[in-house]
Amino acid sequence: MLTFCPARRPHPTSSCRQRPVACRLARHETRPTEAGDGMSGVGERGRHIGVRPWDAVPLRLQPLRLLVKLIVGAVAVYVAAWLLPGVDVTGPGGALIAAAVIGALNALLPPLLAAVRLPFTLALGFLLAIAGDAAVLLIAAELPGSSLDVDGVLAAVLAGLIIAAVSIALEVVLGVNDDDAYTLRVMQRIARRTGERTVTDVPGIVYLEIDGLALPVLRRAMRDGSAPEMARWVAEGTHRLDEWECDLSSQTGASQAGILLGSNHDIPAFRWVEKETATMMTCSAPPDCAELERRHSSGQGLLREGGASRGNLLSGEAERMILTISRLEAEKKANPDYRPYLANGFNVMRALVLFIWEVALEYTASIRAKRRDVRPRGHRGGAYPFLRGGVSVVVRDLVVHSVLADMMAGRPAVYATFSGYDEVAHHSGLERADTLEVLRKIDQQIGRIGRAARYAPRPYRIVVLSDHGQTQGATFKQRNGYGLDDLVRRSLREGSVAPLRAGDENDTAVARAFEEATGRTGKKRAKNDVSDEDVVVMGSGNLGLIYLMEERRRLTREEIDERHPDLLPAISSHPHVGWVLVRSAEHGPVVLGPRGTRYLADDRVEGEDPLAPFSPTAADHLRRTDGFPHAADITVGSFYDPQLDEGCAFEELICFHGGIGGPQTRATLLHPVDLPYPDEPIVGAETLHGVLWGWRAALQGDGAAGSPAASA
Predict the structure, then answer these.
(1) Sheet harboring 471-472: ordered strands across?
(2) Which tens digits make up the pLDDT trace of 101-117?
């Protein structure tokens, strides 16, 4: 059968994207694949990639594994009784009986509690789950002839934590920590009882985003054993590893707008100023994300027609979502999508234990880096260790469970983001040991999702991608002792400069997501009215934006030179600045460098080309950015050294993205080999949206949801 990708909407103002990206006409053949790798064989059906009859593998509990887990539970109960004065058990035999009783009660009580519809489901559900775990231990202790004694609620909660910690450690040692049979059975039962389970031969598609993972980093991680599950897919020939080039700016807000909504026009950075209203926009603020989604939604969302959004900035027009920043108002209401996670009483205690462990790992890694004087070294104190634990454990586990539940319900499309690697790389480094360990754990969860595909009521294809990469280097301030805002301040003829606006995108996004989901109001949002500022300087990785607020429009190069004659020369000649973009009234977009100028309108260079160290598409990216209505008066890019493969951020992150230079624009695309792939390079998130939607349409037909064969 011949398949094709639909024409993609080209990027405005970019000559390299005016032509639709052609896809190879590929003849797809049915190829048997091992069940559980997330790939079904393909046949022919209509005008899209066909399907063969799908027979889900029935879930069967394995008696031997159940026995091992029962013994693990008994040891955990015995250890808890040994450590806590308020808990007692009558010998190893009594611990075994207590473990069996606790297991039986856990199969009954947590699912009942999870079915309760509560506002602020995440927060109240977590508290209810902790109370439920304590209640299970107290009930087990009160049963006639019980071998377990628990002295009060506090002892029960502490015992639950210890039992979870010991169980996690022993299950890892014994190799039974990857058994999801019970979890998936619970999810299947919930889907059947709620009437949401769709049984069909039409394939679904799961998009798994690893935030900030560059292709060169993933390739080395696969080679060196830090991503064994994805490496296995490539080695077995079910998947192919490719690259796509992200936009300027290379950050999650712009990338997800393009990928999920099909448009990221006029998103010049992670944060920017809209001068006509003197308003600062930020890609992680819920009201701003909601506004971005309103501006860019056109009925072309990647997740339209029954899809699910999990842990993303934008929803992609999905019908189901958790921890999606643009739709956080929904988190204040009862959200049934948390039910599969909360229905397993072990999940919350496990998350708490692993959260504490992740925080301890961060403190240990930070101390080790200081002792060894590792450089570059980023800031790792304050709230960051707890943010790392939240992103790398709690959010990750919520996302994984929701994806598994989506698959067990047979939803046609799912897009989920894993932010842990990006967060840790910002502070630890691109390929430091603790960063790669976070990547390994994400890879483990991706393998878990792949293995679960065999049990789903429809076949699934799994695509792994990243929204951008990262580039490493000491920050601008570490190199110079002052920031970009200081450089601007001392180069102005008059006026004051507001302190540089910067910050970790996961810090703000995750914090606000949890505040909304838990009903807790944290510190007030940073002021977004900049009408009383003379000059606003912003950092988005190694991309700097400078707004001269004396006019409510973009100033030209000539106006800037007239009003502040020292400003542009001081910035463009700085040794750690690679290029400066301004708009000339006479010449249009102009890129200034330390020893030359490039005129983008006619692609003319005087002296040395300031874009020479960057990718061949750099001029097209800058030309496109210059066409944005809210482009900065002055856009600044840091230097990039191709030999050392480093640049510098204008904010205090030693690994960064947002601009151009190095692997930050070399994003990852790991996809099934039998899906049609473009002949030309994929440049830009809007183009990638066309490819991803083309795959979904090829699998599911023009309706893209697939017609259910039956519902159960």
Answers:
(1) 640-641, 646-647, 471-472, 655-656
(2) 988 888 888 788 778 88
